[in-house]
Design goal:
The protein has 185 residues and is an all-alpha fold. It has one domain: Helix Hairpins (Orthogonal Bundle). Helix content is 82%, strand content 0%. It is built from 4 helices and no strands. α1 runs antiparallel to α2 and α1 packs antiparallel against α3. The longest helix has 81 residues.
Amino acid sequence: MLEWIGAIAIGLIVLLVIVAWSVYNSLVVLKNRVENSLGQINVQLKRRADLIPNLVETVKGYAKHEKSVFENVTKARASMMSAQSTEDKLSANNMLTSALKTLFAVAENYPKLRANENFVSLQAQLAETEDKLAYARQFYNDTVLMYNNKVQMFPSNMFAKLFGFAQKDVFNLPEAEKGAPKVSF
C-alpha cells in the first residue's frame, strides 16, 4: 500500500514537472512573440520615418521644377504684354518662346504631369506603410492578448507568477496620433 502511495506521489510530481515545463515553455514562446511583434512595429515606424521625408523631398523637388516652368511662362507672358518698344517685345518674345519650349518638353515627356504621378506614388506608399503599421499593431495586440490570457488563466497563472511572467500592455495610440499623417507641400 505504501508503495502505491509512493508511486502515486512520484507520478504526481512527474506530472507537475511536465505541466510546469510545458506552461513555462508556452509562456516563453508567447513572450518572445510579443517582443518580436513589437519589433515589427518598430521596423514599420522606422520605414515610415525614413520614407515620408524622402518622398516629400522628391515631390517637392519636382514640383519646384514645374513651378519654375510655369513661373517662367507667366513672367514671359507678362513681359510680352507690358513691352513697349520693339526691342523689349523681341526680348520678351524670345523669353516666352524659350519658356514655352520648356513647358512643351515637360508636357511631351510627362503627359500626366510627373508631379501628379509622384504625388500619387507618395500617397500609395504612405497608405501601404500605414496598412503595414496597422497590421503590425493588430498582430502585436493579438499576441499580447494570447500572452495575457495565458498569464491570467488557471493553472498557467500560478506558474507565470512563480516564474515572473508579467502582463504586457496592448498598443494604444495617443489621441493626437489617431488621425492620418499630415503631409503638406
